[in-house]
Amino acid sequence: MKNFYGSIIVTVVALIIAYIYGGFNAVFITTILAILEISLSFDNAIVNARILEKMSKVWQEVFLTVGILIAVVGMRFIFPLVVVSVTADMSPMKALHLALAKGNPETPGTYGYILQAAHPSIAAFGGLFLLMLALNFFFNEMEHHWLKLPEKMLYKVGQLPLASALISLIALVITAEFFAENPYTVLLSGVFGIITFLLVDGLGQVMSNHGALAEAEHQTGKKIHTATKLTGKAAFVMFLYLEVIDASFSFDGVIGAFAITADPIIIMLGLGLIGAMFVRSLTVFFVEKGTLDELVYIEHGAHWAILALAILLLLSIHIEINDVITGVLGGIIILLSFVSSIIYNRNH
What we know:
Order of helices and strands: HHHHHHHHHHHHHH
Shape: globular
Number of helices: 14
Structural class: mainly alpha
Helix content: over 70%
Number of strands: 0
Strand content: under 5%
Radius of gyration: 20 Å
Distance between the termini: 29 Å
Number of domains: 1
Largest sheet: none
């Protein structure tokens, strides 16, 4: 429980603020948004945990402090403002005034309406980033296979040069051609999503290897690889990698929240303060308990959920998909992988 004390305190404070701001109705909507964010983000916590376990205790604390500020203020408040500002060609201050005016997202010119209009670009960027993330996992050699046939087939496909990028580009072209009203915008956003993943993933791997090697040389004087926790520049790069991944997972929740409320303050309290804080607590809990090593299929379940999320994001460019469907589907996949892991442990 010690991992969740901070999240519980933040939840109480956020609900008090919501009550002062808008009464019991605001408390209710904040709670709904928090539950939505947590249900959508179990896969996020599992992926984050695998990266965070490579980092030193100090940087894990940075993830819980600075990282939560980026998640709350950056992704749940500033990011929608920037999107509205760019999309509607208005100043950030005017976008802020428009946000505070709330307004029905179905009404043209309102904050929620403009943000929804930018959904295809956001979905293309986030969908392609997450697609690359999932494919990269399945294309690597694994000690265990959960869904044996598809995972072994994906591994064979992954042996082709630049397989994840090629498949992602094909998916992007199909999406832009058959699902997008503005193919050029979707293509451009999707390409940026692919490039962003290649940059942060490549830089993260380089710095991770460099950090571990440098520490090993410092301690032994020999050039050997080790499982030493990352510090310094290597840890900083991995922290940035974590934040980019976290942002990509947030896109569907941030946009979907406007179907529930157009109030940016309530969205920041529910999705940001409560939801994002619990996701970080779950991440640290998984790291400290060694959950990913004990439950051999849980990462597989998380990445199948990510793959499903990526596909749903791309489909949502043309088809309206309720976030509840995304959350339930991801939750079921992860639950099944959890049960499979327990059965595996009992049999071995």
